[in-house]
Amino acid sequence: MRKLDTRTIVVASHNAGKIREIADLIGPFGFSAKSAAELKFEEPDETGTTFEENAAIKALASAKASGLPALSDDSGLVIDALGGAPGVYTANWAETADGTRDFAMAMQKVETALEEKSATTPEQRSARFVSVLCLAWPDGHTEFFRGEVEGFVAWPPRGTAGFGYDPIFQPEGYDTTFGEMSAEEKHGWKPGDVQALSHRARAFKIFVETCLNA
């Protein structure tokens, strides 16, 4: 594993919610970070078929364009009753004809698909959020960190916090959806703590332990 020896990185994302969430996680470590969106980098085509492949595409594009290490995230909602869909195509389910993303539409699409499967109980609607972080260097070296959180698809959507599919994902052991949790509750982790709730926080915890700790 290669250690990160700089506190200056690029967050390889154009997703405002994801940028904000990663910024919340890296802030306590004193990082100076700019996003690919701020730097006006073009979004690369995500042609991979796994979270790891798509995370690497984004991180490597930003690392090579900036000359700095870049941290990307590829994440998605994996629903058992739908054969793992939407999975790596989680964002695609929200795409509209004009190229924008409508996650209210995407959540309804998920619910319709589950209704077609007659999936009504939490057990029948089991799902997990998956996050794969990729840290890439300009020379092409990459490191991967994967986090998952189990739960089920709730309906109707609840809460306006978070982003994406958060209002319909209820993690195991909780009575609230990600959409009803504050950033602090959802991350469930800060320097010195041993727990991490969200998939992205769990992946980030491994990143810290692997690349930042001596």
From TrEMBL:
This is dITP/XTP pyrophosphatase. The active site is at residue 74. It catalyses: ITP + H2O = IMP + diphosphate + H(+); XTP + H2O = XMP + diphosphate + H(+); dITP + H2O = dIMP + diphosphate + H(+). Its EC number is 3.6.1.66. Gene3D superfamilies: 3.90.950.10. One of its GO terms (molecular function) is XTP diphosphatase activity. It holds the Pfam family Ham1p_like. Belongs to the HAM1 NTPase family. Substrate binds at residues 13-18, 75, 163-166, 186, 199-200. One of its GO terms (cellular component) is cytosol. Mg(2+) binds at residues 45, 74. Binds 1 Mg(2+) ion per subunit. It comes from Rhizobium metallidurans. Its cofactor is Mg(2+). GO terms for biological process: nucleotide metabolic process; purine nucleoside triphosphate catabolic process. Homodimer. Pyrophosphatase that catalyzes the hydrolysis of nucleoside triphosphates to their monophosphate derivatives, with a high preference for the non-canonical purine nucleotides XTP (xanthosine triphosphate), dITP (deoxyinosine triphosphate) and ITP. Seems to function as a house-cleaning enzyme that removes non-canonical purine nucleotides from the nucleotide pool, thus preventing their incorporation into DNA/RNA and avoiding chromosomal lesions. Keywords: Hydrolase, Magnesium, Metal-binding, Nucleotide metabolism, Nucleotide-binding. CDD domains: HAM1. InterPro entries: dITP/XTP_pyrophosphatase, ITPase-like_fam, RdgB/HAM1.
